[in-house]
Design a protein that fits this description.
By secondary structure, the chain is of the alpha+beta class. It contains 20 helices and eleven strands. A three-stranded antiparallel sheet has the order 4-9-8. It has a two-stranded antiparallel sheet with strand order 1-3. Strands 2-5 form a two-stranded antiparallel sheet. Strand 8 and strand 9 form a beta hairpin. Helix 6 runs antiparallel to helix 7 and helix 15 packs antiparallel against helix 18. 51% of the residues are buried.
């Protein structure tokens, strides 16, 4: 049943009143905001349509890329990390908390709607100067809703999404201080995102000073490809991936990255705007650069342990090697790094930069920030491979996976679907105490039986994407879409898993992150538990 709810209004409107105190802000009607009445003002406001908070830390913690190192890192317990990792309803605050993810994405939606309203008031999308911002605002609005629905709701599927609680789809500027909305269902949210993408794609452009910080043409196609993959519309996912990648995909230049000798310089190079593989770059106040790096022990209570790397991800078995290649980082063009401290051992890529924005030079205070690629050609290539697998073009999917692997690894890869199938049929399914990269898949959509070519190819592409997006939080969405059961494992730091504290099965309602407490207190119906 639909229920009238109140969005976290202060969060939605904060973009227009960032310097105003809380009391003054609540005393001011939203229609008193500064008038946006020129192309320059539209362009300036468009910058606020991109979230200033990332989701990476939360979704990495939620997924199976982290083990609990508390047995070793006993002095650095943190309640926020514990709540997220344990799939609890989060009450603690953090730069990357679910509340901030919620707040910033609604703020982005509000800014996009103000841009669209201003464009309408100034003559509409037929104005050549305004048309690109019209398309960009629609894509930005769609993307913010896409993030919200995929974090705070169950994943889309054709069987239950007509009744699974969604989020409101906000497509008009705010009116009044306490506007009310209906919480729609997941299917309706996806339908509205679809409409915004289709309309926005007609007008997107590359005509920006730095296109990589906007929904440029290629980034928009990459978003469309990922959206339709999640929407189970495989043919459209393939269509837009093809448009994004072109006849000869330009993938990440790992030889260039290997020129940099340390994490700070290598990770900064990874997210450079002139790196052709980066399609859309986003920045935000974030601890992810510390969390996913060789910095502070306080961020190693939960981590990507070397045990995980050896058995499931970076050094896990792959079809062209056939067995673990322990600690052989040289098999990668962009080499992963192994770190150890006392008994704590963890392995990472240098791909998430840590930046510190100084706001008070005298006191030495400021904000921790990071920059990350929301979309890349490499990830889009894997999205295309998955779409081809679902369309049963196994040879085409293998060609994409061979291209990705040959770019990622030092040895050229040339596999057939038959070889992939034979390889995965020779591998045991994952058990928490005997881990492998191969996990039982239980998606709501239909796939062939275990051991089939299709299932084996899906195992392969999911492993490749897990490696490609390690540190960027994408694995969580694959876990939801494919109904993968995951566990909360306690590690002793030396690679021995001593116990399991919990498991998350395909039908577990905790796969939808709980609506933030203050939003629920304002009248928003909580997710069921």
């Amino acid at each position: 049943m639909k229920k009238k709810i109140i969005l976290y209004t202060a969060a939605i409107l904060a973009v227009f009143s960032a310097s105003t105190s809380c009391n003054k802000f609540l005393d001011t009607m939203p229609d008193n905001r500064a008038e946006v009445n020129s192309v320059e003002k539209v362009a300036a406001l468009m910058g606020d349509a991109y979230s200033r908070t990332d989701y990476m830390m939360v979704t990495e913690l939620l997924a199976d890329n982290m083990d609990n190192n508390t047995a070793v890192v006993t002095s650095y317990a943190d309640r926020f990390f514990e709540q997220v990792w344990n799939w609890e309803d989060v009450t603690e605050s953090n730069n990357e908390s679910p509340e901030n993810i919620w707040q910033n994405n609604w703020g982005s939606i509000a800014a996009a709607n103000e841009v669209l309203h201003a464009i309408d008031e100034m003559g509409g999308k037929d104005n050549e100067e305004l048309a690109p911002y019209y398309g960009e605002a629609l894509l930005a609005r769609a993307y913010a809703h896409f993030i919200l629905v995929n974090i705070f709701c169950l994943n889309y599927n054709t069987k239950t999404s007509d009744t699974d609680p969604g989020i409101p789809y906000m497509d008009q500027p705010e009116q009044g201080l306490m506007p009310q909305y209906e919480r729609s269902n997941v299917a309706e949210v996806y339908h509205r995102i679809d409409e915004d993408i289709q309309e926005g794609l007609k007008y997107v452009t590359d005509n920006y000073v730095v296109p990589k910080y906007h929904f440029n043409v290629q980034a928009s196609y990459a978003f469309a490809a990922r959206f339709y993959l999640y929407y189970e519309k495989w043919d459209k996912a393939l269509e837009y991936a093809n448009r994004c990648l072109g006849p000869v995909p330009t993938l990440r230049d790992y030889d260039e990255l290997n020129k940099y000798p340390d994490k700070a310089s290598a990770s900064a190079a990874y997210v450079r705007s002139d790196m052709k593989s980066n399609l859309l770059l986003q920045t935000g106040a974030s601890n992810q650069g510390l969390f996913w790096g060789n910095y502070s022990g306080s961020y190693k209570q939960f981590g990507h342990t070397t045990n995980l790397a050896l058995t499931e991800t970076i050094f896990g078995r792959v079809p062209w090697l056939g067995a673990n290649d322990a600690f052989n980082a040289t098999r990668y063009r962009f080499q992963p790094k192994n770190y150890s401290s006392s008994r704590l051992r963890y392995t990472i890529f240098w791909n998430v930069p840590y930046e510190f924005e100084v706001t008070n030079p005298v006191a030495g205070t400021g904000y921790r920030r990071t920059l990350y690629p929301a979309f890349t050609t490499d990830a889009c290539l894997l999205d295309r491979a998955e779409a081809k697998i679902m369309l049963r073009d196994f040879d085409g999917a293998c060609a994409d996976l061979n291209l990705w692997a040959s770019n990622m690894y030092t040895e050229p890869v040339s596999l057939t679907p038959e070889q992939v199938t034979e390889f995965y049929n020779d591998m045991d399914y994952y058990q928490w105490n005997e881990p492998t990269p191969k996990k039982h898949l239980a998606p709501a959509f239909e796939i062939d039986a275990e051991g089939s070519t299709q299932e084996s190819m899906l195992q392969y592409v999911l492993h490749c994407r897990r490696v490609e997006t390690l540190g960027f939080g994408i694995r969580w969405f694959d876990i939801k879409r494919y109904g993968i059961t995951i566990y909360r494992r306690v590690s002793d730091g030396d690679g021995v898993i001593s116990s399991v504290s919990d498991e998350l099965k395909p039908d577990d309602l905790r796969r939808a992150v709980q609506i933030p407490l203050r939003v629920r207190d304002a009248g928003f119906e909580p997710n069921k538990r």
